Amino acid sequence: MTRYCAFFASINVGGNRLTMADLRYAFEREEFENVETVVASGNVLFDFDERPTDGLEELFAHMMLDRFDMDTFAAVRNAAQVRAAVEDNPFTGVGLDHNVHTLFLERDAEQARFDKLVADHADRGPEKIAIGPRCLYIDYVDGVGQSRLSNAFIERRLGCRGTARNVRSLARIAAKMA
């Protein structure tokens, strides 16, 4: 069995309210093992046979729509990928942990679209952005709440969805997955 984490987008923000007990129960009904939630923002740890994560992401999107009437995205990563989201982030240890994020994407960002994102954001704020495997690394220098670099801004330019977690949360999740 492989340990995974599903990072759900838009859980308990806006109108998408869901208890973590209900989310855990939905995973257990789908026969995932050792299901555990971390924080109330849609981080679900679980064990399952090793497989490509894109199939799990599709399953979870369908499950959320069917069971909870939520059209959301889940980025699924194994333990090594979660550790890499912290360790490979070039802003980890440079920026403040609560401002440094990894934005998990549903697929690799195309270089041309990433370049457009960086160019379009150049005069909008002090944030730093780097590209990674199926993710972006972002230092929200002055904080996420003050930033004009929103998920919607990023998603429109990249043409794919994503969900972000700060490196402090990711380190905590990685420790639980170990």
- Identify the overall geometry: globular
What share of residues is helical? 25-40%
CATH topology of the largest domain: Alpha-Beta Plaits
- Write down the domain tally: 2
Label the CATH architecture of the largest domain: 2-Layer Sandwich
Total DSSP helices:
6
Q: What class do helices, strands and sheet pairing give?
A: alpha+beta
Averaged pLDDT: 92
Distance between the termini: 13 Å
CATH class of the largest domain: Alpha Beta
Rg computed from alpha carbons, rounded to a whole number of angstroms: 16 Å
**What's the order of the H and E elements?**
EHEEHEHEHEEHEH
**Could you tell me the number of beta strands?**
8
Strand order of the largest sheet: 2-3-1-4
Q: What share of the residues does DSSP label as strand, in percent?
A: 15-25%
Low-confidence stretches: none
**What does the largest sheet look like?**
4 strands, antiparallel
How would you characterize the overall build of this protein?
The protein folds into 2 domains: 77 residues, SP0830-like domains (Alpha-Beta Plaits, 2-Layer Sandwich), CATH 3.30.70; 97 residues, Alpha-Beta Plaits, CATH 3.30.70. With 178 residues, the chain is of the alpha+beta class. The mean pLDDT is 92. The strands form 2 sheets. Strands 2-3-1-4 form a 4-stranded antiparallel β-sheet. Strands 6-7-5-8 form a 4-stranded antiparallel β-sheet. Helix 3 packs antiparallel against helix 6.
